[in-house]
Amino acid sequence: MYNFKTQINISIMKKTLLSLTLLSFQLVSYSQINQYSTPVEYDYSRPRVQTIPQGRPANYTNKLESMQQEYDKMKYDISSYQFSINYLDVDRLNARTIINRYQNNFKMLLESLIQTKNYREARTIYNRAINEFNSLSEKLAIEMNYYDYQKAEELRITLVKSGMLSLAEYQSWTTSVMSDFKSGSGTNYKSSYSYNLISDIIKKY
């Protein structure tokens, strides 16, 4: 007697087995692609000399070695980079506050890199942070005052050496300019349109 129910069960089992086989194949294929394209999947703490897994192309270890080098370089770049601002002593506190903020951000970036191994994303954040720092309006204002004062001071030192300005006059100029600048809290940056210019003070003396 033909058992229709049994035949249906066998058919369902065959289809299920086929579906599982296809799913297994897809997962294996994705895993292979992911290991080539995503550096996070590679354990950089492992020794660099590795055997080529079965089914991998001959240049597989070269790719891992290249990824290791990129990761190492990213770690070095972040840990060794020093943010800096040229500033007059009156602006020391504000300048150091800016520098420390960016250095702390890089410290967190390094910790994230070590945890995730994602050197590509770290490189993007690294470059963006440096560009942002270098174009920061407050940094540029502080440095402009620094360079303007240095230029004016060098001119007066030259005048002192040539005898056209006495040492006492030079010292009086320095004291007056810096005292006036300090009374205004240095650069005292409020916005890109609101801060003190030491060049305006220099013109007075």
Describe this structure in words.
The chain is mainly alpha-helical. The relative contact order is 0.08. It has helices spanning 4-37, 60-80, 92-116, 119-134, 137-162, 167-183, 198-204. It is elongated and about 75 Å long. Helix 2 packs antiparallel against helix 3, helix 2 (60-80) packs parallel to helix 4 and helix 3 packs antiparallel against helix 4. The protein folds into three domains: 8-37; 59-135; 137-204, no CATH class. The longest helix has 34 residues, at 4-37. It is built from seven helices and no strands.
Total separate domains: 3
Tell me the number of strands: 0
Number of helices: 7
Helix content range of the residues, please?
A: over 70%
Sheet bearing the most strands, described?
Answer: none
Structural class label: mainly alpha
Q: From the alpha carbons, calculate the radius of gyration and give it in angstroms.
A: 32 Å
Regions with pLDDT < 50 over 5+ consecutive residues? Answer: 1-41
Strand proportion, as a percent range, falls in: under 5%
Given the C-alpha coordinates, what overall shape results? elongated
Mean pLDDT score: 81
Instruction: Please report the distance between the alpha carbons of the first and last residues.
Output: 117 Å
